């Protein structure tokens, strides 16, 4: 039986909502968090779900948005343009919390959102966006692609860079503990969030 103290928000719905966004913000800031690497689902051209891991770059509770980055030549970019419906999930082993998110994704390529995201990117991250050919291209051999050096990555990578802002529409929080799991969900209701406890 676990003897660790229960979180202060254990039976407090509003505090759970605040903790949820706090965990997402912590995930954006720290690689050790399970929320740093959510899995993102989009809908493929054939209508089925498609999943991949991304780095969570920002979580803004006030705006109700999340941000990640991708190559605008990638499948996920095309899928978001075709259908903005998306979902994310992540589990943090340390806190035993799963967060599931549903929302609508928008690809930002040439606006202030993209510029700020690019400006905040490290040189080693920028290099990926200068890869040739683009992500998903069939290669004759595993090493038949090229990456620019960090000095050239600014010019070569920026045209391929996209910031993805997810406008969150629904949140599902699950905390696992032998003394009793806790699950709650919220959905956007105008400018507010409406939520409640759910059976886990
Ligand atoms: C730890 C990890 C972090 C990743 N972060 C990103 C990311 O932030 N953005 C991204 O586009 N792909 C990221 N990827 C690669 C994607 O998971 C995926 O393989 C790639 O983007 C192609 O996906 P797509 O064909 O669905 O577009 C990451 C993969 C791993 C394993």
Question: Span between N and C termini?
Answer: 19 Å
Strand content: 35-45%
Number of helices: 5
Largest sheet: 9 strands, antiparallel
**Mean pLDDT figure:** 96
Low-confidence stretches: none
Q: Based on DSSP secondary structure assignment, what is the total number of beta strands?
A: 9
Number of domains: 1
Name of the CATH architecture: Roll
Radius of gyration from CA coordinates? 19 Å
CATH topology: Pnp Oxidase, Chain A
Structural class: alpha+beta
Q: What's the helical proportion of residues?
A: 10-25%
* CATH classification, class level: Mainly Beta
Sum up the overall morphology in one term. elongated
CATH superfamily: Electron Transport, Fmn-binding Protein, Chain A
Order of helices and strands: HEEEEHEEHHHEEE
In short:
By secondary structure, this protein is of the alpha+beta class.
Can you tell me about this structure?
The protein has 200 residues and is of the alpha+beta class. The protein has one domain (13-198): Roll (Pnp Oxidase, Chain A), CATH 2.30.110.10. 24% of the residues lie in helices and 35% in strands. Strands 1, 2, 3, 4, 5, 6, 7, 8 and 9 form a 9-stranded antiparallel sheet that branches. The radius of gyration is 19 Å and the shape is elongated. The model has no long low-confidence stretch (mean pLDDT 96). Bound molecules: flavin mononucleotide (FMN). Residues 37, 50, 52-55, 68-71, 74-76, 135-136 line the site of flavin mononucleotide (FMN).
């Amino acid at each position: 039986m676990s003897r660790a103290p229960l979180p202060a928000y254990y039976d407090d719905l509003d505090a759970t909502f605040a903790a949820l966004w706090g965990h997402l913000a912590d995930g954006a800031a720290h690689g050790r968090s399970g929320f740093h690497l959510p899995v993102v689902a989009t809908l493929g051209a054939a209508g089925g779900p498609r999943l991949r891991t991304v780095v969570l770059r920002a979580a803004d509770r006030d705006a109700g948005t999340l941000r990640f980055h991708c190559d605008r030549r990638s499948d996920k970019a095309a899928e978001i343009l075709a259908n903005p419906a998306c979902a994310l999930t992540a589990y943090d082993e340390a806190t035993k919390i799963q967060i599931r998110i549903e929302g609508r994704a928008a690809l930002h390529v040439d606006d202030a959102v993209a510029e700020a995201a690019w400006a905040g990117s490290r040189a080693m991250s920028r290099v990926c966006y200068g890869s040739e050919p683009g992500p998903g291209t069939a290669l004759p051999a595993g090493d038949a692609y090229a990456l620019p050096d960090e000095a050239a990555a600014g010019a070569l990578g920026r045209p391929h860079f996209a910031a993805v802002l997810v406008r969150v529409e629904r949140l599902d929080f699950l905390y696992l503990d032998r003394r009793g799991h806790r699950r709650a969900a919220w959905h956007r209701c105008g400018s507010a969030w409406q939520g409640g406890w759910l059976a886990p």
